[in-house]
Amino acid sequence: MGKYSDILKRNKPDRTSADDPGEALLTARLRERLRTVEQKTGKDSRHYIAASMPGIKGNGKHDDTSGIQSLLEEAKRTKNGISLYFPAGVYKLTSTLMIHEGTRIECHPKAIFNKVHHRGMLKNIEKNSSDTGYEGNGNITIIGGIWDNNGHRYLGGTSFVFGHAKNLIFRDLTIKDVSPGHGMEINSSMNVLIDGCKFIGMAPRKRKFYSEAIQLDLMKSSGVFPWKKSHFDHTPCQDVMITNCYFGSSDRLGSWGRAIGSHSATADRWHKRIIISNNIITGTLQWGIRAYSWEDVTITGNIFDGCGAGLSVDPNYYGDDEVDSEDIFGNQTNDSNQVKRVTIQGNHFIKSGAHGSVMSITGDKRHDMLEVSVTGNTIEGSASTNAIYLAHVTQSSLTDNIIVSAEKGIKLTATTMVNVTGNIIRSISSTGIEAFTGNRDLTIANNALSHVGGHGIWITGNDTTTISNNRLTGIGADYASESQGIRVTSSCNRISLVGNIFSNREPGFQMACAIYTAVCTTNALAVGNNAAGIGLELCDGMSTNGNIG
């Protein structure tokens, strides 16, 4: 024990409390819960230094698989589990390792696990497992090491496979070069912490451009979880924190299809209480994060750099032939899972591609998404049509975001009781804020728009919308001389335009008029708007007072 402790002190990764974000209350509570789990895992257990055990040499030439597996089997024979330490070295693996309940693995930063076969690296579940719920092999901690899948030479799909587990902790490890598949499959598991890890390199073969570095999934079927034959009980994941991780390319392979996400679902099942914070996500082919049928989601402080798109939050697909809307018995519900309580705050999106909107947050015709907060995010440069897109969302807010250089700033469709306030929108080639088709009880207030090539704010087909106290400067590029500061069209009803300020002082931009309202606009008023020197085109029947045009 003394020898083990001395080696561990010399070689373990240097981590301090300063590495933990710990700001949000929910984050702090979940972190404390997982920290308690980590302290218990390995307590009073047997300790081994792997390189000193028979059959393990770590020299890169000897096959260490059976030696390591024999050591892992000790967990089944020890009531309080085992703790393993892997010193620096290269550990050759010729088959998948099976890890059992109560195992703690800690690795020197230069401990390299070198996969030379066409399967995964590590799993906690056997093919003939009858585990259900969260009662499989859990209470597992893995810290450190470089887990090299050699995807430029070997296939094998997902590297780490975990299902039916609770109390899983992964810290400071690197999963490298997967081909094709996921870095980690976290399936039907609860109390999961993935902290300070690197996920680098994926070869998207067989057109698996959607493959996630970390996939959260539910125990749906053998098609979803091919590492098990039966006992598919549709258990989802819950209480998962992914923080301080890096996702990107390696020295041999490019970045992932997606960094974090899901792409299967079951009716009336959600992944719940998911926190994704302070990660760096670079160069994904598709979404950086895709929250698919998740509930109680917090996505904060992440950097998305050069991704195909930023993040997507949406319910499961539904339809007659859609397996994701079948219930746990295989009956088709033709319904989706309503998504609730989503917080997206303080993220930074840089040079997003054209795979989708930088942020796409959508319910569907079955259910509006509830209680979404998109606050304090920055979007710089986007090849996509929309920087932020909301559809079928209610009781939600978009506040204090900064959008610079995009085709469209914010687009809303079929939303209800949404506040769009305090955003800064600049250098937009088309429309700054667009609210089309079926929006109700909408507030667009205190936003600053400048250098917008098309219309500043354009609403059409809306009912009960207030547009107030916005500042619109430099709207309508020279080539779009018919652009308006605020444009109201297509039978809008109960529209209030109050206290907006317009200016044509920016060179190269010229509004045709500050406010335009189509003749089909009803029950509308315009009060206290300042469009000095620009002009207003208000339809007959509007209530007007104190406007300057």
The overall number of domains is: 1
Strand tally is: 48
Cα separation of the termini: 83 Å
Return residue spans where pLDDT drops below 50 for at least 5 consecutive residues: 1-24
Largest sheet: 32 strands, parallel
- Tell me the CATH superfamily: Single-stranded right-handed beta-helix, Pectin lyase-like
- Nearest-angstrom radius of gyration? 27 Å
Instruction: Provide the residue-averaged pLDDT.
Output: 91
**Strand percentage:** 35-45%
- State the CATH architecture: 3 Solenoid
**CATH C-level name:** Mainly Beta
Which term fits the overall shape? Answer: elongated
CATH topology: Pectate Lyase C-like
The number of helical segments is 4
What structural class do you assign from the helix and strand content? mainly beta
Q: Portion of residues in helices?
A: under 10%
Domain Right handed beta helix: 365-502
Pfam families: Beta_helix, Pect-lyase_RHGA_epim
Domain Rhamnogalacturonase A/B/Epimerase-like pectate lyase: 55-311
InterPro entries: Beta_helix, PbH1, Pectin_lyas_fold, Pectin_lyase_fold/virulence, RHGA/B-epi-like_pectate_lyase
